[in-house]
Amino acid sequence: MTRRRRCVLGCAIAIVLLPVLLWSCAPLILGQIAGASRHAPEEMERGLSPAARALFDRAYAGLDSQRLLDVHTHVAGLGANGSGCSVNPEMLTWAHPWKRAQFLVYAHAARITDLERGDEQFAERLRALVASNPRHGRHGLLAFDRHYRADGTIDEARTEMHVPNDWVFTLAARDPELFVPVCSVHPYRKDALQELERCAAKGAKLCKWLPNAMGIDPMDPKCDAFYAKAAELGVALLSHSGDEHAVDAEGAQDLGNPLRLRRALEHGATVVLAHCATLGEGVDLDDPSSQRVPNFELFLRLMGEERWKGRLFGEISAVVLANRATSVVGTLLERTDLHARLVNGSDYPLPAIRVVWSARRFANDGYLTDEEARALEELYDYNPLVFDFVLKRTLKHPKTGARFADDVFLVKRELGY
Ligand SMILES: [Zn+2]
Known about the structure:
Blueprint: H1 3-34, H2 44-47, H3 50-60, E1 69-74, E2 86-87, H4 97-109, H5 118-131, E3 138-142, E4 161-162, H6 165-174, E5 179-182, H7 192-201, E6 206-209, H8 211-214, H9 224-233, E7 236-240, H10 262-266, E8 271-274, E9 281-283, E10 292-294, H11 295-303, E11 312-315, H12 326-334, E12 342-343, H13 359-364, H14 370-380, H15 384-394
Parallel strand pairs: 1-3, 3-5, 6-7, 7-8, 8-11, 11-12
Antiparallel strand pairs: 2-4, 9-10
This protein binds zinc ion.
């Protein structure tokens, strides 16, 4: 056989075999990316080493679990059981490989094995993670509204996912000792005020927005009536702040500028800035001639404004992800003056995606000891939600020694819990 023919034959075999190889390795690849926790969460109680057990105990010491609250826990699904949930159809086809891959990673992390039962499987896995922890508190389950156009009509093509308010009310009602409902109402909806009233009457104390993905400009005067209604009903806005990478938000990152929420505060609403705006840069709206500055800096500026105390909070979900510098967490640990105004969130299922986490880098930068990092890895193998909590409770500023105060993890009177 000539060299050329051997080469052609080799290429042909590779073309045939590569997809077969990829297909057969897919579970392995997904397992590496999103394969949190080799052990069942129920096994944690008897499986932990003494070091991991000690770290777990220390993390929960002095905290009344009845008062623990995680305000940022997602549920999702495809609506197969009448939940009303849906995802963008582009996530279900390889014609959109990036979205498809993203969907598979999330589904794997949430332990969805059968799309026909996906909504229930997502909820069952989450329930097992929370209920198996003897020190669990409650988790705010997030509804997720559709993308609306400025004229109040639904834009299905730009809706990344939809989780109806009634689905989180159903799940929270099943397990009220584990879950509280967090509604999601787009302010441009024609029935926005009525829907917010309905949700408040059913017990929602928080309303989730993701401006970048839902197409909400918090500075738009169209939101003013919504702000006034939220204030009247005692429903706080849990609004994403900073850039957003978990769902597609191309061209809309400026909507995540935390300064845009100042308008909500001016109209009387209570605001919780999710992720403390720890990703991306935004235009300094107080000085439009200036350069773009880190959104985190704008977050700290807003938090520093005296008049919003008691109505403006920061939320620390995802701040420990590997796409943020450890120094961002360092600043939050160091700013003990802000801790009474910070709340905890896990942004589940993100903690269940293995590759976005690293306890090791916090050890390398002096926020954890090597033993603590090892014990955290062990906890991760049982329960990614416990890992997220214990990690945040254990992190210590390398210079000042400051940790997140207990207050960060407990219910806040100002938020109605
Ligand atoms: Zn989230």
